[in-house]
């Protein structure tokens, strides 16, 4: 396998004033053409890890590198041309249209006083079309549902056209059909040569995307190919409840948690 586009070794992060690190000793490698899914229960630092890998948070120890260059020596625009980051949620202070929001993903390709060009508008339109939300283009962002806003934030990351995409719970708030749309997009981006990292609470998403997985637990982290790492034993250790891996009649593996039965 070729050298990773984005890598980190011995990564640790402690919040200011915190007594214990959120995580420590993490090794991460993201390769062109592969998906990395980060799994784990609440509170283990999935979002913080993605922010460290995006250069938006400074790790306590370790360094994130893009093609061997530390992200900390790059300015905001330089990092954004290399890595697109989609936050889990955001509050839009102004009632910009969806197109305006997605166009902000092109900011790294413009100078301070540039206006979006035709090519930038085409990139924004393609991102909306790819996610099946072109019909929202002229709607105010604040008028959308939480799930629709989540899709718009992903479109903004796609419009950035960076070789690495880091998506923090891109399927949060989405119905099943839109979850499938996001997973289809993640798979197709990897097939086109992008390195895609995403966090999720659903191990089935990692199984559906293939590639690599990093399971963050409260006591240890395990990384490797998804079909090797995701086992009932490891999932039970990480999440604290039984989770079976079942194969559907179509030959797809899915993770099925034991949520109990109605009385």
TrEMBL record:
Record's signal peptide: none
Residues of the ABC transporter domain: 6-243
Record key words, sorted: ATP-binding, Nucleotide-binding
Molecular function (Gene Ontology), one example: ATP binding
PANTHER family per UniProt: ABC TRANSPORTER ATP-BINDING PROTEIN (PTHR42794:SF2), HEMIN IMPORT ATP-BINDING PROTEIN HMUV (PTHR42794)
Name of the protein described by the UniProt record: ABC transporter ATP-binding protein
Provenance organism: Roseomonas elaeocarpi
SMART domains hit by this protein: AAA (SM00382)
Domain of life: Bacteria
């Amino acid at each position: 396998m070729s050298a990773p586009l984005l890598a980190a070794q011995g990564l640790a992060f402690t919040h200011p004033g915190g007594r214990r690190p959120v995580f420590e000793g993490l090794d991460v490698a993201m390769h062109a053409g592969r998906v990395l899914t980060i799994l784990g229960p609440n509170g283990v630092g999935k979002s913080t890890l993605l922010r460290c890998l995006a250069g938006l948070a400074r790790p306590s120890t370790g360094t994130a590198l893009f093609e061997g260059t530390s992200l900390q020596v790059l300015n905001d625009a330089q990092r954004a041309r290399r890595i697109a980051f989609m936050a889990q949620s955001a509050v839009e202070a102004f009632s910009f249209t969806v197109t305006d929001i997605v166009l902000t993903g092109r900011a790294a390709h413009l100078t301070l006083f540039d206006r979006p060009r035709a090519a930038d508008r085409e990139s924004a339109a393609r991102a909306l079309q790819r996610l099946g939300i072109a019909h929202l283009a002229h709607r105010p962002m604040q008028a959308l549902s939480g799930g629709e806003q989540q899709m718009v934030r992903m479109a903004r990351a796609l419009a950035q056209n960076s070789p690495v995409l880091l998506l923090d719970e891109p399927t949060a708030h989405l119905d099943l059909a839109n979850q499938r749309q996001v997973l289809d997009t993640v798979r197709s981006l990897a097939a086109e040569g992008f390195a895609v990292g995403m966090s999720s609470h659903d191990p089935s998403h990692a199984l559906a995307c293939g590639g690599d997985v990093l399971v963050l637990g409260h006591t240890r982290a395990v990384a490797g190919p998804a079909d090797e790492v995701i086992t009932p034993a490891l999932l039970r250790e990480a999440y604290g409840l039984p989770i079976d891996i079942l194969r559907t009649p179509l030959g797809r593996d899915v993770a099925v948690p034991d949520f109990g039965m109605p009385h």
